[in-house]
Specification:
The structure holds two protein chains of two kinds.
Chain A lengths: L10 H13 L5 H13 L1 H19 L7 H41 L5 H31 L8
Chain B lengths: L2 H23 L2 H17 L11 H20 L19 H15 L3 H12 L4 H8 L3 H23 L1
Helix pairs in contact in B: 1-2, 1-3, 1-5, 2-3, 3-6, 4-7, 5-7, 6-7
The chains are: A mainly alpha, B mainly alpha.
């Protein structure tokens, strides 16, 4: 007669999958006990378990990534510099935009400057802004589509 | 978590995160890029980690995995799996260890990326099943069966290679 698992199914049909859970100590106490009983009478599963145990040990001893902590510390320092530089640029540009916005509002609402002068000065600045956006857009498109950007000369 | 503690944790986890990214991306150089991107993501928004939602290690590994998958999508068409063991570690290893790891590397190449990463998360990085489910964003109940199938596949390949 087969032992029954917590789901009521015969242990023999499910122990294979639960061998990994048994090996990793991830089964419930009841399932752990059932697998242990099964292993006592099933040589194939016991061999399988030993194979899995050896496999786990082999994986655990392998060197699969760069374990040199200096490499990662250095990389993190570079990353920190880049992140703080990015934050610095965002703050600088954000601050300049706010100051420019306040200036534009003050200029446009000023009663001491005539309407024609306001129009002319606005046209100059709008033109400069449009040129800047156009050049920036072109540069961004080039950067995205240039296949040779990483080629060192 | 304090900033200095987080930085030290990240340094300690660099090698493991690199190994995980190698399994996804297939080469050491791209994997290092994925880890660096993950460092930048975490350092830019350290508050994104919520201690109440679990340990830092699986959370960071999930960030690394997501970055590696992003890089993989951008890199399409998929390049052949190159080296699953970091070549930079060779000088530190004895010849015997090197041969052992080369055998493992050959066998891992025969598996799918999904099989490689679940084995790595459990047997190399020592994560619990709940943490693995968290990193892979799968139901906790499926981890045991997936892991077992992956282990059996690796065991079979290793045995056939040894013959």
């Amino acid at each position: 007669m087969n032992d029954l698992s917590s789901t009521g199914k015969p242990v023999e049909k499910h122990v294979n999958e639960r061998l990994s859970g048994y090996l990793d100590g991830e089964l419930t106490q009841q399932d752990q006990q059932q697998v242990r009983l099964h292993l006592e009478k099933c040589e194939a599963c016991s061999e399988n378990l030993e194979g899995l145990r050896a496999l786990r040990a082999r994986m655990g001893q392998a060197q699969l990534g760069d374990s040199n902590k200096d490499v990662w510390r250095e990389m993190m320092d570079d990353t920190t510099v880049n992140v703080s530089r990015g934050i610095g640029w965002v703050l600088l540009i954000g601050g300049l935009l706010i100051i420019a916005g306040i200036g534009v509002v003050a200029f446009l609402t000023s009663s001491s400057v005539g309407g024609v002068e306001k129009l002319l000065v606005s046209a100059v600045y709008i033109g400069l802004g449009a040129l800047f956006v156009s050049v920036l857009r072109q540069r961004l498109i080039e950067r995205k589509t240039d296949r040779y950007k990483d080629v060192e000369i | 978590m304090k900033s200095m503690d987080m930085r030290q944790e990240l340094v300690n986890m660099g090698g493991g995160a690199h190994a995980l990214a190698i399994q996804i991306l297939g080469n050491s150089h791209d994997a290092a890029d994925a880890v660096q991107d993950a460092f930048a993501t975490v350092l830019a928004r350290p508050g994104a980690y919520d201690r109440k939602k679990g340990a830092f290690k699986p959370w960071f590994l999930r960030v690394v995995r997501n970055r590696a998958i992003d890089l993989l999508r951008r890199r399409r068409p998929v390049e052949p799996v190159d080296a699953l063991v970091d070549p930079g570690v060779a000088p530190q290893q004895s010849m015997e260890n090197l041969q052992r790891d080369e055998g493992l590397q050959r066998a891992l190449k025969e598996l799918t990326a999904g099989q490689r990463e679940i084995i790595l998360l459990r047997d190399y990085l020592d994560l619990s099943y709940a943490e693995i489910a968290d990193v892979l964003d799968v139901a906790a109940g499926t981890v045991m069966s997936r892991l077992h199938r992956a282990r059996m596949a690796l065991k079979e390949v290793l045995e056939s290679n040894d013959e």
